[in-house]
Here is the input.
Amino acid sequence: MTPLLLVGDAVSACSGLGRITRDLAIHLHDNCSDIFRVGALGYGGFGSRHIPIQQYAIEEMRDWYIPTLREVWEDFAGEERGILMTVWDASRLLWFSRPDFPQACPDKTMAEWLKHPPFEKWGYFPVDAAGPNGKLSCMLREVLLGYDRVLTYTKWAEGLMAETLLGKESQKRDLSFLPHGIDTRVFRRRDHWESRRVFHKHMGFQGPEIGNEELLIGIVATNQARKDYGLAVRVVAELAKTRPVRLFIQTDILERYWSIPALLMDYGLLPQAIVNTSLISDDLTAQIYSGCDVTLGIGSGEGFGYPIFESLACGTPCVTGRYGGHVEFMEPSMLVTDSGQRMEGLYNNFRPIYRVADWVKAVQQVGRKAAHLTQGLAWPDLWPKWEAWFRSGHSRHLQVGIQAATNSTTETDKDELDPDRQTETDPEVLPVPLEFPVS
Here is the structure.
């Protein structure tokens, strides 16, 4: 079996990237153990005995550089050639994909090893924004060029990458897209009114019961620059002027890029808000989605956007912006068109600018209406496409290995026929043994 090491957020991490890696690892173990021996190297988790693969923790990472990568690979794969697949943003991976770039990799020994690694480099990349001229910025292009195989989440992202890489470079890397699935065994419609009681029954909320007349608005988003809490709170404040509302926020930290308490205080929403920063189970999250009348997808561009589609799977509409990878899977009535764009950051990403009134109108139109998950996004429907992608890549991996071994043998045969060639250590040239990748 070919060693396949997944690298990104830990399979036991609570992040979206961790969920992707975990789902892929479990599906690969269950369905592709005839061709792959799967392991995972991850950040932000301690591992889990419930995930039946070899797991390693990223240690001493700095600026996304993983100093133990070689040791982990050699422990996992031994002398075998294999595949290393990253499930991370391209912006984190220049050191890995392009060790030939000056100062990209902080360790010279690691850089030399990565120039001729014992694995193919595959990448599954989120793209949440376009750069200048309908492409990704120049440094992201250099990252992609260092990969043997490139996969992204959506058709929109694939188009940006195709424009960035152009023609033959896209074909060389088998550029394509596959969204990741939603676990509809968990994220499914529950009783709406009963689900509104989970805040008191299971989360210890001490405030007043949520009334049937209140519009319950949900937000599930980390506290970071790309999640526009400022816009979201202003939208809810406007809605509160005309009807009773209650706001639930599930986030990771109250104050980082945004001060969520200050926003709620400034817009007079603190009495109507329930904010949770503790970890909650997927089952409880699904009940909360089911109890909401509408959710807000507040990312200023999403690669995919788990909370959007988890909400839909639970029967609750999600109002979000018409910018990013999620758009192609959404009903138009839930999408808000931007009024302009701005550029930000090291990678020259364009971000949308929205009018509060447009979001208010969309919430008023779709709130309390039944929604459903887009066909094909549940894992049982999606996994056959993923399995086909992995199996075709494995076949290609074996062919590349055979070709490399054949070329090595051909060069040896030429050397044996050259009576003038001598090695530094021995005038007699010995034939090189033919080695094939283990499968």
Q: What stands out?
A: The first strand starts at residue 2 and ends at 9. The chain has two domains: 2-179+380-400, 192-377.
